[in-house]
Structures are given as C-alpha cells and as structure tokens.
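STRUCTURE:
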C-alpha cells in the first residue's frame, strides 16, 4: 500500500513518522514543495493548483491514499483533491486539535502561523469547538520557517517569543501548525510546568490507517520512502535530520525513482 503525504515543507514529518511507527510496512511518498514554500501566504487558487498537480504525480507513482498533513493545504484544497481523485482514493486532511484541547482545558492558546492566526478558518474552528473555554490565538512568527531550515536556535528563539505572548493562565497549547510538533520538547520546556500540548499528527495517522483498513485490500508493502521535491525525485532535506522524525524517515528504505 502506497500512502502519499503532501506538504510544502517539513510539517509532514510528524504524521509520516506516526505512520511509520504504527504500520512500518507501508510504502510512503513524501511530496514536498521547496520551490513553492511556504504555501500559507500564497493565493488560494495557486495553492489548489499546486496541490492538485502534486496529487496527480503521486497517483502516477501508484499512491492509493493521499494525506494532507498541512493546515493550508487542508483548508484550501482538501475538497478539490477529493473531487479530483474520486471516491476510490481516500484523502485525509488535517484540523488543529482545538476540540480536544478545549474539552480538557478551561483556557487554551492556539499557536499557529501569522496567516492562520488571522484567518477566518481558525476563528470558525474556535467558535465551533471552543466548548465554552477561553481560546486565544498566538502567532508564532518565523517558527515554521526556522524548522524548515533545521535552525534549532532560531526556532528556540521563536518559541520564546510565542511563550511571552501566551497568557499565563493557559492550561493547554494547541500546536496549530504541523511543523510545531517537531519542536514539542523545547516548547514544553519553555512553557510553565503543567501546560499540556495538543497536536493532530497521531490522530491524522490513525484516521489514515482507518481509511486504509476500510479499503479491504492488502496493505503490506516494503516500508519504502520515496521523496519528491517540487516534483523532482530526491531526498529529504538535510534540515530534516535535525529532528527525530526526520531521522526515522531518512533511515527508511529509499525507493528507486
């Protein structure tokens, strides 16, 4: 079974790593877009076209399931991808873990990119899933970009800035960008003791496996990892090695292109 994950950068790593841990025999296509990253500030139609073109390349390589472990791609292109590939190919999107955080904590901060923090999309999620809790958005300027570059010192500084702008009374922080779980240990270390972190990577991986099982077809593969960089066969960026998830995936068997 070949599962394709589509994202502009390293935000796909947490979900990909969970898939590798939970079902190591799956063959993975990791389709990154360094030429077009970041997607967040791009026009909506540009993102849709980019994601659809990437989805087509993944289908051409034999993908049977498509995952969008990226908030921008999920918000902008998820429905378009589902229509494009048809009902035979499951497509799994990503939603920030606001619902479980608000159910567990009276006060929640949602850490996200500046674009997502200011978006109608996040405001609607907070309104829908806030569950009466106090939920505030915190823009984490430069954090995703530093993670993509593998610059842990810059990422640590961006985390410190976000901590300063996070209310003191929060009980939970939602990692609302799929890049952020890669720095979860540092985020937890800088936040006050007892603050819980919530991210969606494991839930997205689990939902992907449910969709795979529902296909009722053999899913065992060889545990290969095939990487595309803006459509070109390649390897995970060297910056991925700065994170355990990247190390895990880089250690997998590479699929010849």
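SEQUENCE:
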């Amino acid at each position: 079974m070949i599962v394709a994950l589509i994202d502009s950068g390293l935000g796909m790593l947490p979900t990909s790593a969970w898939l590798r841990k939970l079902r190591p025999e799956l063959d993975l296509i990791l389709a990154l877009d360094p030429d077009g990253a970041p997607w967040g500030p791009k026009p909506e139609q540009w993102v849709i076209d980019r994601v659809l073109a990437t989805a087509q390349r993944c289908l051409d390589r034999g993908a049977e399931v498509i995952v969008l472990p990226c908030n921008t791609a999920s918000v902008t292109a998820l429905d378009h991808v589902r229509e494009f590939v048809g009902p035979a190919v499951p497509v799994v999107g990503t939603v920030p873990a606001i619902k479980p955080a608000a159910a567990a904590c009276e006060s929640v901060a949602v850490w996200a990119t500046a674009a997502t923090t200011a978006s109608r999309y996040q405001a609607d999620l907070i309104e829908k899933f806030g569950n009466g809790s106090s939920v505030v958005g915190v823009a984490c300027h430069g954090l995703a970009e530093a993670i993509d570059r593998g610059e842990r010192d810059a990422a640590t500084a961006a985390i410190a800035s976000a901590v300063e702008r996070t209310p003191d009374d929060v009980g939970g922080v939602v990692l609302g960008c799929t890049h952020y779980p890669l720095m979860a240990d540092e985020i937890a270390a800088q936040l006050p003791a007892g603050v819980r972190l919530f991210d969606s990577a494991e839930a997205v991986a689990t939902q992907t496996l449910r969709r795979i099982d529902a296909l009722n077809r053999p899913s065992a593969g060889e545990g290969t990892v095939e990487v595309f960089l803006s459509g070109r066969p390649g390897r995970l960026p060297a910056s991925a090695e700065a994170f355990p998830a990247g190390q895990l995936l880089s250690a997998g068997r590479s699929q010849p292109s």
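REMARK: The radius of gyration is 17 Å.
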